[in-house]
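Tokens as discussed.
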């Protein structure tokens, strides 16, 4: 995704994203099994639309769709702190609603690990583990 959070005025629209990735998926169909788009390139109010578009493109071309849920905050200049848990959960919920099959994350060791140098990463990990436990016990929705 060439989104506004990283590329600013050089970002492409959702329609252009779909057109360009339609061409890519047509070429890789039958060659690539799984795709996982990063979710940190677009503002939250656009995330659902991009996730749905990516999942639909993948499905149309018989490719499994995962989502790369970024666990760091892109809205801060230069340094990327660990993401607030509420934002992480929102991103996971939107990916699930879009129909992706699995979630992965980039830079777990820095931004979500209990062994990270960032205290906020420890908190994010603990909250995520609590949510997983609640989900397994039927106490949390996805």
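Sequence:
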């Amino acid at each position: 995704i060439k989104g506004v959070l990283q590329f600013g005025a050089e970002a492409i629209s959702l329609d252009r994203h779909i057109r360009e990735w339609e061409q890519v998926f047509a070429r890789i169909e039958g060659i690539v099994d799984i795709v996982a788009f990063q979710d940190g390139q677009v503002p939250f109010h656009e995330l659902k639309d991009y996730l749905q578009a990516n999942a639909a493109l993948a499905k149309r071309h018989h490719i499994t769709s995962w989502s790369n849920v970024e666990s760091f905050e892109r809205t801060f200049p230069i340094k990327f702190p660990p993401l607030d848990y509420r934002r992480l959960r929102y991103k996971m919920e939107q990916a699930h609603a879009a129909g992706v099959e699995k979630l992965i994350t980039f830079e777990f060791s820095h931004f979500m690990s209990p062994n990270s140098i960032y205290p906020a990463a420890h908190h994010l990990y603990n909250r995520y583990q609590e949510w997983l436990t609640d989900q397994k016990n039927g106490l949390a929705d996805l």
